[in-house]
Amino acid sequence: MVIDIDNVTKSFRVGSGFFLQGRKKIFALDEVSFHLRENEILGIVGESGSGKTTVARCILALTGIDEGRIEIHGDDIQSASRQKRRELRNHFAIVFQDPAANLNPRQRVKNSIMRPLILKGVSQKEANKKAVEAMEKVKLDARYLQSFPHELSGGQQQRIAIARALVLEPDVMILDEPTSALDISVQAQILNLLLDLQEEMKMSYIIITHDLNVIRYVCDRVVVMYMGRVVEIASMKEIDENPRHPYTRMLLESSPVLDPRDRENRDIQEIGEAKYIYNPTSCNLVGRCPHESDICSQARPPLEEVQDDHFVACFLQK
Amino acid sequence: MNEILYIYKKNRYLRMGTIMVGFLVLVAIFAHVIAPFDYDEANRDVRLEPPSSDHWFGTDEFGRDVFSRVLYGSRIALRVAILGVSIQVLIGVTLGLISGYFGRVTDQIVSFLADLTWSLPPIIMSMAVISIIGKGLDNTIIAISVVSWAQYARVVRAKTSSLKNMAFVETALAYNESHPSILFRYILPNTIPSIIVLVSLSIPNTIMSTTALSFLGLGAQPPSPDWGLALSSSILYLLNAPWLAVFPGIALVYTVFAFNLLGEGLRDLLDPRLRAR
Amino acid sequence: MNTLLELKDLSIDYLVKDGKLSAVNSLNLSINRGEIFALVGESGCGKTTVAFSIMRLLQGNEQTSGEILFEGEDLLTLEDGRIEKIRGKHIGMIFQNPLDSLNPVYTSGNQVAEAILLDEKDKHVVMEKLLKLYEDVRIPDAPERIHSYPHELSGGMRQRVMIAMMLSRNPQLLIADEPTTALDVTVEAQILKLLKELRDDYGSAILLITHNFGIVAELADRVGIMYAGELVELADVVEIFHHPVHPYSKALMASLPRMTKEEGRLATLDGTVPRIIGEFKGCRFSNRCALAQKRCFVDTPSLLEIRPGHFVQCHNEEVLRGY
């Protein structure tokens, strides 16, 4: 196991208030547990408010957590010393959604790519060499190293963000909506690139997205999140063929099918929208779930293994 | 580079502003070459003479050549601009960065200070400061700057707040970049366009304020060719020798106008490019 | 007459420092009453420019030629007064981010009512219509919701309010520019379902502008694929997805993630979209086309009807035949 996330809860206060008083508490992560294995591509799928981006930030300890443990190769990163935390971070690389925002607009691409290496103590000469190698890996001409980000297209910018992620030879690459802002032909290129790199360099990926089609294409296992909680964890195949949680099914139903002939088969319920209220003693899907029963509003469903390596948090599984 | 030249050609304000300010700077640099007399060269025989071929702008009550004094005065105006803005930028940008980046209590304190210094009338506040540190041109500049930094702090704070949440900053943190490093490499460079615009727009204000203080006798002291001081001493002779007020006055208006144009032009130059990104 | 909107030889050029940038080139297409037509393409293909030009909402620094015939009238030559009457009443438009389109200081009900008031003076009738509209767009608790401000509503709600606003005047054509890009997937599905039902109930045609092929597959009756300002293929939605003919359309369809990695890799296209400034002869896709012949670089291809209702712009005989 590369990353073990155990019962992590993270809340923060929103709203205004002088000296932080009188603000509402929301739970970005609510007793979240899952793990990442060696050499696997894990997808975290959910809509806005699911907590999927917060998970990434917590794994890197860019933000603190209230409760729980996050272990990287056995070491708890959240409670580690500053020095240890910096060491643990070296296992990771991260790529965010907006290609333009991933890079410092005032720095040449070369410097953006080399920076993580320089911070680690690598010499200029060596860093330069690695930068050129990384550009080759992402199939970009080395002359773009001299460019500024705004001179490049979205696809090229995203490749550079990936190149920068690669120079540190991370064990784990975290990609937060890596292709959502890109055209589909560019998306195909980036996804293929990511698959090739993963095979070649034997990394693990955490891919965070709302696009189930992308998940289906690249992921081995999937974690489904809803309003800060994990509702289902299973292999991609299982999720496709045997989705157990009603929310997972909702997601699958709602996902665009990319085949006009399947139009009539789709059954879109009027399921309203998520209400962001903290329900410590009930399932979050109450009010939207087509299979609701009494027990669902009386207690919070725990995440349980219902089949081999298939976990669901729902009372109606029996 | 080509992009800048193209925008330069299209933007009238920018063109005029750069030419006018450029002219001012040249005058200041070469004042000692252009000016026929020294600024404190008094000649009893030609006191209060109207403009003539010897003295283009006439002479003052001491027989000094007004033209030369106006020319040398440009150096003072620029000194005010450079020194004044430097102090404001130093204080304002630093505080803006810190409060925008670290937020919470630091932010509350800095914002409070900014609101305080900004809401009180600058001239009165400066007078208070001068009563502590004494009169003189440089002291006036310091006094004005100490009460005017809030505009820089506000702009930089706002930009910093939005920048610190951007992906490239988060990524840098993930790569163990230290906070000071992030401020200097990632945040500060991206606030520079906004700062530049503010600089050219706050120069006229700074000049006007220090001129007002000099006019009141708190700033430049005789025999300085400072335009504000010139205006002050010209009051006695306004009816008989209006040229004593007219020419320094025109110089002042020209300078303020020039920097305003430049500021407007720069804002147009930098804003749409920022938006396009 | 079944044709509602007809674009004839529509060309739009932007004046930039290097010359004339071609955004749209000789576009020919027509939209029928009550049909959902999707104009698709990737960034820079010109689809949004087309949408804005229909509403005469372009900035003013462009040169337009050709005709945009709406119910027979050329929108490009109408005086401002007439265009304003048509905008909103006969042609409505909803945009990507409803938060940008709604005024934050007025309640949602107020804004929709403003639209209704343009046709209806009686306050009671307006209120009735308002509530019915909210119900039609499936906003729950309508009597309370009309008093909500835009920032109090979720993204999906806001978009429903926008749709209500547009429907209030019962336009014949609704232009939807990336209507669901800012929305979550489950909300998007509901909005799309809503649009379809409204087309059925109100009879408005919908011109859908998007790069999201998922919603095209969901909604569209016919599809036009644009590339570098030109229409390269036009056909019925099933044809486009299952029998694309133009090399670009084929490449696009092959890059849609419709499989797992075990089943293979997505197909990709090399090269980038050209920026056409000034004179250009030949096919705009030629520099990226695997089947390009010498002719493609010199002669501009025209749109040919290879099967009834299926148009393709290409020189290559094999391509046109290889259905």
Describe what is shown at a glance.
The complex is a heterotrimer of chains A (318), B (277) and C (323). Chain A is an alpha/beta fold. Chain A has 9 helices and 12 strands.
Overview of this structure, please?
The complex is a heterotrimer of chains A (318), B (277) and C (323). Helix content of chain A is 30%, strand content 23%. Chain A is built from nine helices and twelve strands. In chain A, strands 6-7-8-3-9-10-12-11 form an eight-stranded mixed beta sheet, with helices on both faces. In chain A, strands 2-1-4-5 form a four-stranded antiparallel beta sheet, with helices on one face. In chain A, β9 and β10 (229-235) form a beta hairpin. In chain A, α3 crosses α4, α3 (109-120) packs parallel to α5 (154-167) and α4 (124-137) crosses α5 (154-167). Chain A is globular. Chain A starts with a strand and ends in a 6-residue tail after the last strand. Chain B has a single domain, classed as Orthogonal Bundle (MetI-like fold), CATH 1.10.3720. The longest helix of chain B has 37 residues, at 66-102. The mean pLDDT of chain B is 87. Chain C is α/β, with parallel strands linked by helices and 323 residues long. Chain C has helices at residues 47-54, 80-89, 98-101, 108-117, 123-136, 142-145, 155-167, 185-202, 213-219, 237-242, 247-254, 317-321, and strands at 3-16, 19-32, 36-40, 62-70, 73-74, 91-94, 173-177, 205-210, 222-227, 230-236, 303-307, 310-313. Chain C has an eight-stranded mixed beta sheet, sandwiched between helices. Chain C has a four-stranded antiparallel beta sheet with strand order 2-1-4-5, covered by helices on one side. Chains in contact: A-B, A-C. Chains A and C meet through α6, α7 and α9 of A and α8, α9, α10 and α11 of C.
CATH topology (level 3) name of the largest domain in chain A:
Rossmann fold
Largest sheet of chain C: 8 strands, mixed
Beta content of chain A comes to 15-25%
Rough shape of chain A? Answer: globular
The proportion of residues forming helix of chain A, as a percent range, comes to 25-40%
**Helix/strand order of chain A, N-terminal first:** EEEHEEHEHHHEHEHEEHHEE
Number of helices of chain A: 9
Oligomeric form:
heterotrimer
Count of alpha/pi helices of chain C: 12
Order of helices and strands of chain C: EEEHEEHEHHHHHEHEHEEHHEEH
Total count of strands of chain A: 12
First-to-last CA distance of chain A: 30 Å
